[in-house]
Amino acid sequence: MKAGAEPRTSLFGPESGLSDRVDYRLMETPEEKDCIYLMRYKAYLHGGVTSPSESQRVSDRYDDAPNAWIFGIYVDGELCSSIRLNVVTSECRISGSTDLFGDVLHPRLDQGEVFIDPLRLAADPEKTRRFPDLPYLTVRLAYLACEHFNADTGLALVRAEHQAFYRRVFMSEVIAEPRSFPGFLPKVSLLASDYRTVREKVMTRFPIMRSTSVERRMLFQRAGERPSSPRGVVTSFERAFRLPETAGQRRTRPSGP
């Protein structure tokens, strides 16, 4: 390790104290969302996937959609990453993937499918170096949303070099070739995971994807739906998990608009 470098800490080892260190927070106020927009900008600029802007923020109209949930993932009280989930149904089709790949997705929505569309994944570059397992904690929210909202399919807009992560973790398959997403420099393909088909296989390989109905309810309740619990903060997992990984295997990180 180079002098002065931050130690790399696994969040899934038995010694990590995962449940005491990680918070999922539903970001609902303008101030909370602004923190997310700023982190997105810094992460995307660092990754070379967006252009510099005076506002130093990355947001879009899907952030304020009625079917959107924006989460901040905190480790040791510090904002480390974020994800936005849009729950897409035949009645509410607002999402980035649906707009970009409408020709592919609208016919399936017409048949009654329910999609979880996780977009705007972003992670603080320094925190990602410190916590290499952070991507798993972040995309876990999309998997929990599939269960909570009884979704048929989990979507992902992914650039080519990060497709391996989604294939390995969620057994996703490419269902549409690359297109340009507004404000995101690389082209992205549309991947899909048949949730009901792969559910048990994914949870067996990656036990962190397991959850309780209580955790899911706490996560996805809006502020006005929570009579007594702290607003949008979930700090408990069923247990701390270790990810299956062969010695020397390099973890790829998810990335997408």
Automatic annotation (TrEMBL):
The protein's name in its UniProt record: N-acyl amino acid synthase FeeM catalytic core domain-containing protein
Q: Which residues form the N-acyl amino acid synthase FeeM catalytic core domain?
A: 36-193
Pfam families, per database record:
FeeM (PF21926)
Provenance organism: Bradyrhizobium australiense
